[in-house]
Write a structure and sequence with these properties.
InterPro entries: PhoU, PhoU-like_sf, PhoU_dom. Keywords: Cytoplasm, Phosphate transport, Transport. This protein is mainly α. It has helices at about 5-40, 45-75, 80-115, 125-145, 150-180, 185-215, 225-230. About 85% of the residues lie in helices and about 0% in strands. The longest helix has about 40 residues, at about 5-40. The N and C termini lie far apart (about 40 Å).
């Protein structure tokens, strides 16, 4: 078998893995959108759809992990090829965890519905944050597909907006609970829901950092934004 043939096969395997990772990202994005719909409409049907999609996300994550392990064992890649496979593995793990957070969101919505306090809770700000997180995931998947480091830096900045939304919502929710102690229990569900949204943003940020690592070979996890921009842009 010629070296060219081996290289062509490896490229085909990488393309297959890339497609599977994008498929996983699409499933997780759908999960998040369904969770947002469940929150906005207090829909038990949407909650059930998120739970059903969770099974597909978990299975696809397992399949991708197995395929990556097989490629690494058979090809023993080095340098950039190895970095790419590691990036795929870490991106897959972060996407699966985003799916877990969407599942948590749906469970919290279901708990709020069961409490009977759904319509009286302050959820509008939370829906804004959830849409921000969903949009950030969409941009992250696009940046990962194109290995766009400039877009990755923009994603890192945008995650700060989600963190600010979370902090503001927590302050508002604390005030709300102090004014009406009867709403403390369902409000705590809302707090956990807000934390799940924040974590989705964090995982998108992790994938953006992977893009920079893959393209530039730089680990930016513990650097300032000014340092990242001077190194990447």
């Amino acid at each position: 078998m010629t070296e060219k043939h081996l290289s062509s096969q490896f490229d085909s395997e990488l393309n297959s893995i890339s497609s599977r990772v994008m498929e996983l990202g699409g499933l997780v994005e759908s999960q998040i959108q369904q969770a947002i719909y469940a929150l906005s409409q207090f829909s038990t049907e949407a909650v059930a759809r998120v739970e059903e999609q969770e099974k597909r996300v978990n299975q696809l994550e397992v399949d991708i992990d197995y395929e990556l392990s097989t490629i690494i064992a058979r090809r023993q890649p080095t340098a950039r090829d190895l970095r790419l496979l590691i990036a795929f593995s870490k991106a897959t793990a972060n996407l699966e965890r985003m799916g877990d957070e969407a599942h948590k969101m749906a469970r919290m919505v279901g708990s709020i519905i069961d409490s009977g306090a759904a319509r009286s809770l302050p959820t509008s700000d939370l829906r804004v944050a959830a849409e921000l997180a969903s949009g950030l995931l969409r941009k992250t998947l696009d940046a990962f597909a194109r290995l766009d480091t400039a877009a990755a830096v923009s994603i890192l900045k945008e995650d700060d907006l989600i963190d600010a939304e979370f902090d503001g919502f927590v302050r508002k929710l604390i005030t709300y609970m102090m004014e009406d102690p009867r709403k403390i229990s369902p409000s705590l569900d809302l707090l956990f829901l807000a934390k799940a949204i924040e974590r989705i943003g964090d995982h998108s940020k992790n994938v953006a950092e992977l893009i920079i690592y893959l393209v530039k070979g730089i680990d930016v996890r513990h650097t300032t934004m000014d340092e990242i921009e001077s190194s990447v842009l």
